[in-house]
UniProtKB/TrEMBL annotation:
The keyword Transmembrane applies. Keywords: Membrane, Repeat, Transmembrane, Transmembrane helix, Transport. GO terms for cellular component: membrane. InterPro entries: MCP_dom_sf (IPR023395), MCP_transmembrane (IPR018108), Mito_Metabolite_Transporter (IPR050391). This is Mitochondrial dicarboxylate carrier. It comes from Opisthorchis felineus. Pfam families: Mito_carr. Belongs to the mitochondrial carrier (TC 2.A.29) family. It comes from the Eukaryota. Solcar repeats lie at residues 12-92, 97-188.
Length: 229
């Protein structure tokens, strides 16, 4: 009788999270743009659907993708950093982390990711919000790199880190909720014996990870990024 062949161990590379986040950002960018418009309106006039219709009628379908290059760049800097740091630490340690340890590593990774991703995040908010500004005052960045260059030339490098404190704190909370709680919930699910290490288990663990704690920080971050107006 032949010996049972052991299934190969799944290994996640440090850049997987950043690449996946960039692809997700490309798909959900219209919703992110509408969210920015809702958060930065002076008073509540319309809801999510109403804002989407307003943008579409006023500026056309492709206006929903304003700033998509900055959104993707943000994920390739912000998410690549936080996922990369967390996964690298976890793999190099070799043994399972305690929840406290994973929480600390997640917060530090998220905080660093917030700093690295802040320039692209600020340009992203500006590009998404540009259509709300009078035509004569618009920045009209061609793409994310053009936005970064224009900010450095006209306002100085430090301007790219406008709102970095709030962005970093938010990123620390977000990463704590996404990664530390995700790992904890996944372990709990696997220990029940009813779940295997498969995509369905990962999806349930992701949905269970709490992220409500970042909502206030998200609003404040957008406000800080728009202080330059």
């Amino acid at each position: 009788m032949s010996a049972t062949k052991e299934a190969p161990k799944k290994v996640g590379y440090w850049y997987f999270g950043g690449c996946a986040s960039a692809m997700a950002a490309a798909c959900t960018h219209p919703l992110d743009l509408i969210k920015v418009h809702l958060q930065t309106q002076q008073k509540k006039e319309v809801g999510m659907i109403g804002m989407g219709i307003r943008v579409f009628k006023r500026d056309g379908f492709f206006a929903l993708y304003n700033g998509i290059s900055a959104s993707i760049l943000r994920q390739l800097t912000y998410s690549m950093t936080r996922f990369g740091m967390y996964e690298t630490y976890k793999q190099r340690k070799g043994s399972p982390m305690t929840f406290t340890e994973s929480g600390v590593v997640a917060c530090v990774s998220g905080f660093c990711g917030g700093i690295v991703g802040n320039p692209a995040d600020m340009v992203n908010v500006r590009m998404q919000n540009d259509m709300k500004i009078p035509a004569a005052e618009r920045r009209n960045y061609k793409h994310a790199i053009d936005g970064l260059i224009q900010v450095i030339r006209n306002e100085g490098t430090l301007k790219l880190f406008n709102g970095v404190s709030m962005t970093s704190v938010r990123a620390a909370f977000m990463t704590f909720g996404q990664l530390a709680f995700y790992d904890k919930f996944k372990i709990l699910l696997l220990n029940t014996g009813y779940f295997d290490d498969k995509p369905v288990t990962h999806m349930i663990a992701s949905a269970s990870a709490p992220q409500m704690c970042v909502r206030t920080n998200e609003y404040l971050k957008q406000s800080f990024c728009l202080l330059c107006h």
